[in-house]
Design brief:
The protein is mainly α and 138 residues long. It has five helices and no strands. The chain has one domain.
């Protein structure tokens, strides 16, 4: 039941993060900035929102370890960032899906990926990346 409750809280955080991301993205696209640059900026803005809300509310990991959590979040963020930019490019340029639908699909993929990694790595008590990889494999 705890996993369902955490997923629900993470979903609400993601909605708030997504709203900030989409507002940033939409404004920047309509200002004439290239879609990949807009997505890059929107991901940074949404990522900061996600980290603080996830840390304080979803996973309630506010005691100590902020340096470790921040480092792990940045690692996740880089992976998610690349996944986001690659997927939106793929959906727009290779498949021909519209910009906003491509962004929505990219966001869903990243949502699922990010929740899994935040739960088992960023805000967990795991011992590091090798422990995390072993946990994923087993």
């Amino acid at each position: 039941m705890n996993n369902i409750f955490q997923l629900t809280k993470y979903s609400l955080v993601s909605i708030m993060s997504a709203i900030s991301d989409w507002i940033f993205f939409t404004i920047v696209v309509y200002l004439g900035i290239h879609v990949i640059s807009a997505q890059a900026g929107a991901r940074i803005f949404g990522g900061m929102t996600s980290f603080f809300l996830s840390r304080h509310w979803t996973f309630s990991k506010t005691k100590k370890k902020i340096f470790i959590q921040t480092r792990r979040f940045i690692f996740l963020y880089v992976l998610s960032y690349v996944l986001s930019l690659t997927s939106i490019y793929f959906f727009i340029e290779k498949i021909g899906i519209s910009i906003f639908l491509s962004k929505a699909i990219s966001d869903v993929i990243c949502f699922l990926f990010n929740f899994l990694i935040m739960k088992v790595y960023v805000f967990s008590n795991s011992k590091g990346i090798l422990f995390f990889i072993k946990k994923l494999i087993s």
